[in-house]
């Protein structure tokens, strides 16, 4: 009687059967794909830095002539334009990350069915989440570098600590892109993006972007302190002025915790939507 041995298992085939949440170490391929998509559309990619720059120019030439000084992070007066610039840099990083992780991701998820195809290969939900968040951070970082160069040319940075505003912008991008990606998995139609704007616009206006925290009543100050953009602005403002304080560690921890929460939630949601 001749014994027949079973053929050896194909490792490549086994790698295609991934449990939900498994990381395959291929997140960089999503970043490479996004870079290739944008290689012929770099003007669109850089256009996100234009809005904060126009705000900054308006304050430099217009409103800044009316309001010359405000209280800085240490309570001492500082130029109003220099006060607003770090906040606009944080906003620029936020906008780049949010746009990439919400509008663009929604199209890939709901219409292009891009992730359905990806998860049929040796790529897991965590790879998708890390890859898309990584690209959103890259986009926010590019906006931040461009804006930082403009702010430096205008003489609005008072310390060499301002160089750390670039990694701080990447951290802001991580926090907002991770949360944005988690939120967009619940969106069913483009009309629901109005709810995201309903959150972003008041946060941009009231998270001490244009006014010190002290102008708000005490109860409202605690509400502002809960806003993620507030922590990004405080971190940026401290680095721009060189006035470092222990409270900046709290800002740093808040953004890191928000990014970790968003990464966990987006991974679970992608796995639930596409692998079940």
From TrEMBL:
Keywords: Antibiotic resistance, Cell membrane, Membrane, Transmembrane, Transmembrane helix, Transport. The keyword Transcription does not apply. One of its GO terms (molecular function) is ABC-type transporter activity. It holds the Pfam family ABC2_membrane. The chain crosses the membrane at residues 42-63, 78-99, 142-162, 168-188, 195-215, 243-265. It is a multi-pass membrane protein. It is found in: Cell membrane; Membrane. Residues 43-273 form the ABC transmembrane type-2 domain. GO terms for cellular component: ATP-binding cassette (ABC) transporter complex. GO terms for biological process: response to antibiotic. Belongs to the ABC-2 integral membrane protein family. This is Transport permease protein. It comes from Amycolatopsis iheyensis.
